[in-house]
Amino acid sequence: MQAAVDERTAIQAAIRQGLSNDEFQLYYQPQVDQNGTLVGAEALIRWRHPSKGLVTPDFFIELAEETGQIVQIGTWALDVACKQLKAWESDSNHSRLYVSVNVSARQFHQPNFVDEVLRIVEINGANPHRLKLELTETVVLDNVDTVISRMKHLNGVGIEFALDDFGTGYSSLSYLKRLPLTEVKIDRSFVNDVIADASDAAIVQAILAMSQTLGLGVIAEGVETREQYDFLVKHGCQKFQGYLFGKPMEIDGLSRIAIPFGIKL
Ligand code: C2E
Ligand code: MG
Ligand code: MG
Ligand code: MG
Q1: Is ligand 1 within 6 A of the CB of residue 96?
Q2: Alpha helices, DSSP H, located in the chain
């Protein structure tokens, strides 16, 4: 037990140092439409640890959420993503892409969350219409009325919301109707087995049908094979993200994708 506590304390200190030494980096994963045309990207954090190399978020996001460091990390990520949006604005190839940024529950529930987002968008001169925030069902679980009012406030300046990892949490379907969401993201655990597992296929179909009825957009995450993509298209999925189209990559890689032609399927 003591060893576990020591390790947590060590990681916490390392995160603090990583933030001040600028060791974090955003990777971007392509999001495409039914034609394979690039429409946006999800910003995913990576940690260039001096001795451990490239560290993925599953190693530190949960702990950062517990210690509260996620607030600083999330602010940093939003700032970098907004700088990227600004940089793309003058580049006719990329000016219509949006960037999706993950927001943790702890970050969203900070009293000054809305003001912080508005401030970061503003100081960077980023177009809020190109910014999307990904919330998980845990964000939405407590205090739905406050959540809705914050979302509406940000909606008011053009910022959109996606509900991430959809299907894995506990959100009631009635919330789905009330929340000002642009889209739901079907969790990759369902997409993964959609061909082999009849119940996952049924869940995916149900999410797609329900979203259509509610007028919500849908994006599938974790699309790795042509068969999964064909299944999703057949059942009305509009957008896709996954290794089939591209892994999370450094910004230069994303900038090299020629949008008018999109990604070959
Ligand atoms: P997420 O938001 O659900 O992101 C999708 C995850 O699925 C990413 O993992 C991505 O690399 C992975 N993925 C995408 N396509 C495929 C695929 O075809 N196959 C497989 N096997 N995996 C795929 P990643 O980058 O390790 O991020 C993990 C989680 O960490 C994210 O899940 C998100 O919850 C969190 N995260 C990442 N960046 C941030 C951030 O800036 N702030 C916050 N609060 N959380 C973040
Ligand atoms: Mg996400
Ligand atoms: Mg997700
Ligand atoms: Mg997921």
Answers
A1: no
A2: 2-20, 61-67, 69-89, 105-108, 113-124, 137-141, 144-155, 173-178, 188-192, 198-214, 226-234, 251-255
pTM of structure: 0.96
Confidence class for position 129, pLDDT limits 50, 70, 90: very high
Residue 75 CA to residue 77 CA, distance in Å, equals: 5
Query: Is residue 165 lining ligand 1, measured as CB closer than 6 Å?
Result: yes
**Maximum separation of any 2 CA atoms in the chain, in Å:** 56
Contact 41, 30 (CB under 8 A): yes
Kindly report the average pLDDT of the chain as a whole number. 93
| pLDDT band per the 50, 70, 90 thresholds, residue 260 | low
CA of 238 to the centre of ligand 4 (A): 18
Which domains can be identified in the chain, with CATH numbers? Answer: 2-255 (3.20.20.450)
